[in-house]
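Hi everyone, sorry if this is the wrong subforum. Our group has a chain we'd like a structural model of before ordering constructs, and none of us has done structure prediction before. Sequence below.
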Amino acid sequence: MSNWQPNPHVLRISMGIPVLKFYTLWLLVLPLAGARGAYLSKRAGGSRRVALLSSIFPVLFYAVVFQIAVPIGFAIGHLLPSTLGIVFLSMSIGWVLAPGVALLAGGLLAQLLFGHRPSPQNPAIG
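Answer:
Right subforum, don't worry. Here is the predicted structure as tokens:
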């Protein structure tokens, strides 16, 4: 078990330069996490919008980190100006967009399965 490591799916451009890494097992588990977040939010009385926001909430952390980390890396000299756009795009797709789509897919599935509960009707007082 100590030899097991997740192997990323690497997309390369010409000359073998890796551009994107996708951890497929992680991406396959994320819809379950998104569905769980949406289900718990809906069960707690949240609206449809809040349930979907709760399903993609984990990816918001990565979005903020990359919005801060990439410019700081450029400012302190770890990133060259010519690679800044490529690094930012690849990190955004691999760590924000793809996981966000996976989480949202799970949240939408949970909305379809658990979102149509009849709401209790309050009798008119009067």
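For your construct planning: DSSP finds three helices and two strands in the chain. The beta strands are 9-12, 18-22.
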